[in-house]
Amino acid sequence: MAALRLPALLCLCIATLLISPSHSQTCTSQTFTSNKTYANCVDLPTLNATLHWTYESTARLYDSYLSFAFFARPASPSGWIAWGINPDKPQMVGTQALLAYRKNGDGSMAVRPFNIDSKPPTFPSAPISFVVPYVSAEYDGEVMGIFATLELPKNMTSVNHVWNVGGQMSDGVPAPHAVEPENLSSVGTLDLANGTAGTVSDGSGSAVNGTGTGASGAAGPSTSPTTDSSANGGGQGHSGGDRIGSRGFGLFVSVLVMAASTVIWS
After folding, report:
1. Residue pLDDT, tens place only, 13-30
2. C-beta separation of 263 from 14 below 8 A
3. How many helices (H) and strands (E) does the chain have?
4. Listing from the earlier edge strand, what are the strands of the sheet with 187-191?
5. Please, which residues have CB within 8 angstroms of residue 249's CB and are 6 or more apart in sequence?
6. Smaller CB count within 10 Å for the chain: N or C?
7. 162 or 241, higher pLDDT
8. CA geometry: angle at 178 spanning 121 and 74, to 5°?
């Protein structure tokens, strides 16, 4: 009779390899096709999101710049991801956000600014409070990324930042995100000058709805980037090597499974 017992070691190897590498990816392992680098990165505490950023300050009042790359998985392939700064409080309302999603027609990426002025937000939104000289986005079939540069006031060296993901877009309008604990606590602080990140809480477990003290500084001039900015990543997305590595990983697992089948029935 054919042996039906799979060696324990082979079972362990296959189980380990079947865990997608993207689920264990950290910000320090992410690369970009243009070989662009950022001074700092952090694995955010919720939604399996990561943030890379570089802060540059000049002598002029409104010539400080925050360049960032934000990565997260949308709640569905037709969903959205968003990252933004709240100049006043660590909460959703008041956040000046950039939101990325796939267009219905050709599936290309778009980025839209949203001033989250109420709960739920009003659409179309008012212009956001930051100049955005550069913005793009990409989607690799699993993870979306937003790449942007924000022009900040000179004295804004510490900020509240908010991020989230949703499952649906309708005519450029995002459906509300889930109200799970992860979605309700996706907020933190960034010390731009020192390159550190922190968390905040209002004591009720809902940091996004908290009323803690905000970051220093005021928002810049009321200027908004062009809405519905088409984007293909601008050469700054997950590297082609990452994608090739994922396909090679799948092939490697297939070979191992075939080998396992031989062991099972031999």
Report:
1. 333 333 333 344 689 988
2. no
3. 3, 14
4. 196-199, 187-191, 158-166, 80-86, 96-102, 109-115, 229-231
5. 17, 21
6. N
7. 162
8. 95
